[in-house]
Design a protein that fits this description.
By secondary structure, the chain is an all-alpha fold. The protein is built from 2 helices and no strands. The chain is elongated. The relative contact order is 0.13.
Length: about 90
């Protein structure tokens, strides 16, 4: 494998990591912020209050975005195998 191919695989891998994780982390952060504002306004200082809503929202998001994530991961895996096949020629 050439250095260019390795760098291309590395950059595509980092892109896939970002593409698959940013929606889940972003929504989790927004839900946590909303719950924190609610806690601040009502003076409820329960630390575990943010855990359950975040988990429910992430689970629902994974249900709805799961097919998209799976398709992206499958395409990325096919591209890696194609790169490996091309490198052996």
């Amino acid at each position: 494998m050439s250095d260019g191919l390795i760098l291309k695989l590395l950059s595509e891998s980092l892109y896939q990591i970002l593409f698959l994780s940013v929606p889940l982390l972003g929504i989790s952060m927004v839900v946590g912020l909303i719950i924190s504002v609610f806690q601040a306004t009502t003076s409820i200082q329960e630390q575990t209050l943010t855990f359950v809503p975040k988990m429910i929202v992430i689970l629902l998001l994974m249900v709805f975005l799961g097919p998209l994530f799976l398709r992206e991961f499958k395409d990325f895996t096919y591209r890696i195998f194609e790169y490996i096949a091309q490198a052996r020629l």
